[in-house]
Write a structure and sequence with these properties.
Chain lengths: 573, 565
């Protein structure tokens, strides 16, 4: 242990601990802006400065390890004055458009300005001027609001291993942008939105599509249906001021009705359907010598990643569309026929914890109903915004139920939101389909949790099924490289683009960090346990769907509506 | 190279051939013409003079009796092209191609030296023919530039003839690694790249650091505007760097070195490349050098030419092929340098000192200099001074000696105002401190720095606001943009200065500049930002009245600033 003094208090911490982390033991809160634990440790913003006895300059606490006998002061007048001037400098190159900013009231820069009581910026020199990059269907960049903290670069490069963003130019002209200031849409950006989660300001945000949804609701000719992704119910509360881990399923449904949606359906239903199709696909591949390992395809960020960086593994991807995209065509065919609605009049909205779904729904092949299957995809954050605009105090609404039939679901569909959930849901069904026996313990604990790469072997009758589960694309790479080299002998791999799975998706409420992710995961399994039905193949609405419309899993209609093809894209095309 | 004996053999035979450059007339050769091939002389077209010389020699049929050698920078750049003719050591300046024939036919063939090409001390009518008698050189002491008058930088034999690689041989065959470090420590050598950190200490830390392999790196980025001290060494004496680095490799247990040179120095790169090749051919790099079991080799890395890439962590990052940006320290390069491994990084001039320390011993080396600054320092003298160029003086030489004795004073009888040392990281020293000895601590105490050796003389016509603005403009452009105080703060300082220089200054601007300056110094991530405000602070310190005059009276006494209506 290293012994040091922080603000006159003796502290002992592990070697290698930073002053910033050590100071937490004393209750001192050192402000930070660029620092993001485990992700971005670069010492760029210079807000976290402290005084260290004997040092000639102030010391950035976020990057400086403690040393034996160190004497640290975190809040002397000199330190506060220096931090304040640094902040003032940052603000002097900032557009200060809080009132018209998506991050208003949820912005670390704004928070700091308030905490420091900044009332004046004494510098009226040049400001960085750049056009907004709204080329991407999912992510909007406004470099004027960028404080060059580089969190986005770190998450994109180190966590997601995509490297769509980098630092360009020098000095005051420095710009965080795609290489050569290319438009984001032209990059390998997989639209995962992790950058929007870590950005302390409004410089990288989800593209806001709420206006389209308001317009559809306002159009009397349109029959507007909404589907809500599994993770949204354990996230939305946060966007409306509730504690992380709050479950707001029923209230969300009630709120959506009050916003004016004609039908409130559940993507969980489509998740159950995915299990039917994907589970059977897996069995078919195993029994007929198809390409193995089979890799899940529910995460559109992952799909784009695979198309760019592992185009040689596209045959390993399950051909199943994501639940969002299974839902879309069903609404415009099955549901439209059932209810006698002209599919041209149906407007399908999805609420997702995900920015990549915005990209996915406008992929040209996603029109198997004859129309764009999902018209617009909103993130959980945008739904929160709509509720606030509507003045709906959703967290205090009475619970309501989803509409039938596309709102009926099981716990298996619900756990899709957490890393390992698809795998667990698939195992629950595959086991019973293969063995014909009832599964005694349906909780596959090995699948759960936030660990980057999880591996297990599960006995399904005579079959030992080897599986791997990854979350975060950097972790996916580790497993994929083994697949590529032939080193891996898995049957089935679950890949989720976002750390923690969809509950940590790029469209989640901010902040989303490990602590928050864990709470959402816990809530997800609580929700699963609450359900009476917890296996996809027992979902009566799914059984009816096959009876009435699809025939059988992997049948002709399924292929037409629920399966898809991928495009090898490569890098630097 | 298998042994010291083998080295001695090469040395002795080559020395014989080079005796003429020590003033000993030769039976077979009439003369050696040492043409300065430094940056200044190249730009004043010395290569044309060389061509003309060759022609004249051919015409007179004595091409085989006269050697023409293109040397490293000899120093007096404003007099270029310059040359020294041996054996009589005559110094010629401002040579034109048409002078070549005269030199060959009169001086070399008949022994009639050409008076009009000789140097005349300021105020003296009589020329000074011999290089050693010239006042400008007399006050200097050449340690780092020991070879620039004498050797052909493309010849390893020339280097060896002047005791080259003796130190490496001694280090490998007679000394233990810890003895080498001890010797360097005892020499008192401090880094010549700017910060003045003890070189011996740096090596000690790296030697003790855990992790292998270890690396030895030479910082040849030299980004200070107007500086070309390191370039003179790289171009004029590349083997001294190689030898110094190899000695360090032995001392710290490294087998691999990098020399990082800016792309703007193509000749340096060419000469280094050739020197590395020759060293390898002669077994002075490679496996089992001097049969000692020691292996060492060096690679050249070419920098993209950003000033900040000279900062050590940025340089190391750049060697790895990434954007050259500083990172926080600790970890220091001694523990985590290039490729995350323990690394010694020293400046070109620092490296060039090493062979001298090992060969002559720490005691002899440290007999030159002051108590805390040992040895010599190379400066690039520029600005309003008669003799501009490269000089090398013992530490502790006063500014007055440099300006008036070596530099020959201020032209056109103007009054001396200040000398700026350390370039964009340094500061100005006014006339009242002219008797300050030039060493790390004395300069630091005055708010300037030794820096890497830029020295710009300013006369009464220089506006100090303008000078501050000039340097700030440079750092605003060169800031890497990583940390907020430097990226935005220096820009704001520049804007305030710009306003002042245009008559748009406000009351309170000086105080705001001071507040920004002290805060940026104390908060920026790397040395660039931490020193960038120095030129402003030091000009405010000594010439505050000029700032006030600009702001209050909208007046620039020196008539440099143009005020907007
Ligand atoms: C902005 C900046 C630029 C620098 N440029 C150089 C340079 O061009 N050459 C150099 O040797 N050192 C330069 N340095 C200093 C190096 O960081 C480092 O201290 C030095 O190379 C160490 O060698 P030394 O101990 O031999 O001086 C620079 C430092 C800073 C902060
Ligand atoms: S990014 Fe933050 S500080 Fe900037 S305009 Fe938006 S809310 Fe305000
Ligand atoms: S959306 Fe994902 S891939 Fe695209 S820039 Fe952001 S982090 Fe990188
Ligand atoms: S876009 Fe956001 S996360 Fe990226 S550097 Fe700028 S402020 Fe930081
Ligand atoms: S001080 Fe300047 S050059 Fe150094 S890291 Fe900061 S921005 Fe870059
Ligand atoms: S939080 Fe430490 S430098 Fe930014």
């Amino acid at each position: 242990m290293i012994n040091l003094t922080i603000d006159n208090q003796k502290v002992a911490v592990e070697p290698g601990t930073t002053i910033l982390e050590a100071a937490k033991n004393t209750g001192a809160k050192i402000p930070t802006l660029c620092y993001l634990k485990d992700i971005n440790v670069v010492g760029a913003c210079r807000i976290c400065l402290v005084e260290v006895e004997g040092a000639k300059t102030f010391i950035p606490s976020c990057v400086t390890p403690v040393a034996e006998g160190m004497v640290v002061r975190t809040n002397t007048p000199a330190v506060i004055k220096a931090r304040k001037l640094v902040l003032e400098l940052i603000l002097s190159d900032h557009p200060m458009e809080c009132l018209t900013c998506l991050r208003n009231q949820n912005c670390e820069l704004q928070d700091l300005a308030r905490e420091f009581g900044i009332t004046e910026v004494r510098f009226d020199g040049a400001k960085s001027e750049y056009p907004i990059d709204d080329s991407s269907p999912a992510i909007t960049r406004d470099p004027r609001k960028c404080i060059l903290c580089r969190r986005c670069i770190s998450v994109c490069t180190n966590v997601q291993t995509v490297t769509a963003l980098c630092a360009e130019n020098r000095g005051f002209e420095t710009l965080i942008a795609p290489a050569f200031n290319e438009k984001l849409a032209n990059m390998e950006c997989v639209q995962c939105g992790q950058c929007t989660l870590v950005c302390p300001t409004g410089a990288i945000v989800e593209r806001d599509d709420t206006a389209k949804v308001w317009a559809a609701i306002a159009d009397p000719k349109k029959h507007v249906v909404v589907q809500t992704a599994p993770a949204t119910r354990v996230q939305l509360g946060e966007a409306l001021g509730a504690e992380p881990g709050s479950i707001v399923t029923g209230q969300m449904v009630a709120g959506l009705r009050r916003l004016g949606f004609d039908k409130v359906f559940d993507t969980d239903f489509a998740a159950d359907l995915t299990i039917m199709e994907e589970g059977n696909e897996l069995l078919q591949r195993i029994t007929t010598g198809g390409t193995l390992p089979m890799i899940t395809s529910c995460s559109p960020g992952w799909i784009k990643f695979c198309e760019h960086f592992y185009p040689d593994l596209l045959d390993n991807l399950s051909t199943c569309k994501s639940p969002q995209q299974m839902f879309g065509p069903l609404v415009k065919t099955y549901y439209a026929q059932k209810e006698g609605i002209d599919p041209a009049d149906i407007y399908c909205v999805s609420i997702m914890p995900c920015t990549a779904k915005k990209y996915e729904c406008q992929r040209p092949e996603m029109n198997s109903s004859g129309y764009q299957d999902v018209d617009v995809s909103l993130t959980t954050r945008e739904l929160g915004r709509m509720f606030r605009q509507a003045g709906l105090d959703v967290t205090n609404l009475p619970d309501e139920k989803y509409d039938e039939p596309l709102g009926i679901s099981t716990g298996a569909g619900e756990i899709f939101g957490a890393s390992g959930g698809v795998m667990e849901a698939a195992l629950r069904t595959v086991y019973e389909v293969v063995t014909g026996e009832t599964l005694e313990n349906i909780d596959f604990e090995v699948c759960r949790g936030i660990t980057g790469v999880k591996e297990a072997t599960v006995q399904v009758g005579d079959l030992s099924v080897k599986v791997a589960i990854t979350n975060g694309l950097g972790n996916a790479r580790k497993v994929l490289d083994k697949v590529r080299s032939g080193e891996a002998d898995y049957h089935f791999i679950e890949v989720m683009a976002c750390p923690g799975g969809c509950i940590g998706g790029g469209g989640s409420p901010i902040p989303t960090n490990t602590e928050v992710r864990l709470k959402r995961i816990e809530a997800t399994y609580t929700e699963d346990e609450r359900m009476t039905l917890r296996k996809s193949h027992e979902n009566p609405a799914i059984i009816a769907l096959y009876d009435e419309f699809l025939g059988k899993p992997l049948g002709h209609k399924s292929h037409e509506l629920l399966h898809t093809k991928y495009t090898p894209r490569g890098v630097n095309k | 190279m298998k042994s010291l004996e083998e080295l001695a053999k090469i040395r002795e035979s080559r020395r014989e051939a080079l005796k003429i450059r020590q003033g000993v007339p030769s039976k077979t050769e009439k003369a050696h013409i040492m043409m300065c091939g430094g940056a200044g002389c190249i730009s004043s077209k010395c290569l044309d003079v060389v061509e003309a010389m060759k022609k004249a020699l051919n015409k007179n049929g004595i091409a085989d009796q006269v050697q023409i050698v293109l040397t490293g920078c000899m120093g007096p750049c404003d007099m270029g092209p310059v040359a020294i003719i041996y054996p009589d050591a005559t110094f010629y300046r401002r040579l034109k191609p048409k002078d070549a024939e005269t030199i060959v036919e009169e001086h070399i063939m008949k022994g009639n030296k050409i008076r009009r090409l000789m140097y005349r001390a300021p105020g003296s009518k009589e020329p000074t023919p011999k290089v050693d008698d010239i006042d400008l050189f007399a006050k200097q002491k050449k340690v780092v530039l020991r070879n620039n008058f004498y050797i052909d930088p493309t010849s390893i034999e020339d280097y060896i003839a002047n005791d080259g690689y003796v130190a490496l041989g001694k280090a490998l065959t007679e000394m233990k690694p810890e003895d080498i470090i001890e010797e360097v420590k005892k020499s008192g050598l401090r880094g010549r790249g700017g910060a003045g950190f003890s070189t011996g200490m740096k090596w000690t830390f790296t030697a003790a650091a855990k992790g292998t392999p270890k690396y030895v790196v030479c910082n040849g980025d030299e980004g200070d505007p107007g500086a070309f001290m390191d370039r003179s060494v790289l171009e004029g004496d590349p083997h001294s760097i190689i030898e110094g680095m190899a000695i360090c490799g032995r001392a710290i247990g490294a087998e691999h070195g990098y020399i990082y040179v800016r792309a703007e120095y193509p000749l340096a790169i060419e000469r280094l490349d050739l020197a590395l090749q020759k060293a390898r051919e002669n077994g002075l790099l490679g496996q089992n050098i001097f049969s000692s079991g020691f292996n060492f080799d060096i690679e050249i890395r070419i920098g993209a030419g950003a000033f900040v890439c000279g900062e050590e962590t940025a340089l190391l990052t750049s060697i790895e092929g990434k954007r050259g940006e500083p990172r926080p320290r600790p970890p220091f390069p001694a523990n985590e340098g290039v490729w995350g491994k323990p690394t010694v990084l020293n400046n070109v001039e620092t490296w060039a000192n090493i062979p001298e320390i090992i060969r002559k011993g720490a005691e002899a080396y440290s007999s030159v200099g002051t108590e805390k600054s040992k040895g010599t320092k190379v400066f690039a003298l520029a600005g309003r001074i008669n003799n501009t160029g490269i000089i090398e003086v013992p530490m502790g030489t006063t500014l007055r000696e440099i300006v008036y004795e070596i530099g020959g004073g201020i032209p056109r009888k103007k009054a001396f105002k200040a000398v700026q040392t350390g370039g964009p990281s340094g500061g100005c020293i006014p006339a009242e401190h002219l008797d300050t000895p030039v060493d790390y601590d004395s300069l630091g105490a005055l708010g300037a720095i030794m820096g890497s050796g830029g020295m710009i003389v300013l006369d009464e016509d220089t506006c100090m606001v303008d000078i501050a603005k000039f340097f700030l403009d440079f750092v605003v452009d060169e800031s890497c943009g990583k940390c907020s105080p430097c990226r935005i703060g220096t820009k704001r300082m520049y804007e305030i200065l710009d306003n002042i220089s245009k008559g748009k200054g406000k009351e309170g601007d000086i105080e705001l500049l001071e507040e920004l300056a002290t805060t940026i110094k104390a908060t920026a991530l790397c040395g660039l930002g931490q020193t960038a405000p120095n030129p402003v602070l030091s000009t405010i310190r000594y010439f505050r009245h000029e700032y006030e005059e600009h702001i209050r009276d909208r007046k620039c006494t020196c008539n440099v600033c143009e005020f907007e209506e």
